[in-house]
Structures are given as C-alpha cells and as structure tokens.
Design a protein that fits this description.
Number of helices: 1
Largest sheet: 3 strands, antiparallel
Bound molecules: zinc ion
Number of strands: 5
Strand order of the largest sheet: 1-4-5
Number of domains: 1
Radius of gyration: 11 Å
Length: 70
C-alpha cells in the first residue's frame, strides 16, 4: 500500500507518521476525527501556511484526484 500522499497543485503536502501524530484532529474531508496515533496527512496552501489542515490519507487522496479542495 502506498502511504505517500499524492500532490495537489498549489499545496504543500506532508505525511504525519503514526508516531508523530500526538494530537486529535478533525478531517475537513469527512468531518470525522483523526485519533492520536493514526498516521495522516497535513496540507496547506503554499501562500497561506496558517491554513494548514490535517486529513485522513484516503480523504486527501479523494481531494488530490479531484484536483481541488472543494
Ligand atoms: Zn477524513
């Protein structure tokens, strides 16, 4: 299984490993929690690093396939 998040034009995308995931987040893709200890994706617009959001890997894949966040 490929654990690398796919790119999205205009965004910086990083993998957060399970070990590094020490907080709970809410995924904007499905509006469900990402529990601590679950590897996931963090992404932000290149020009707006303050808008970083945490995504489930599968939810981020949907966004990347679509080619845009919303
Ligand atoms: Zn999600």
């Amino acid at each position: 299984m490929d654990l690398l998040p796919p790119p999205l034009e205009g965004y910086v995308v990083r993998r957060v490993s399970a070990v590094a995931a020490d907080k709970a987040y809410r995924c904007p893709g499905c509006d469900n929690p990402i529990a601590p200890g679950v590897g996931h994706v963090v992404a932000w617009p290149e020009s707006r690093p303050e808008d970083r959001r945490h995504w489930h890997l599968h939810c981020w894949r949907v966004v990347a396939r679509r080619g845009r966040i919303a």
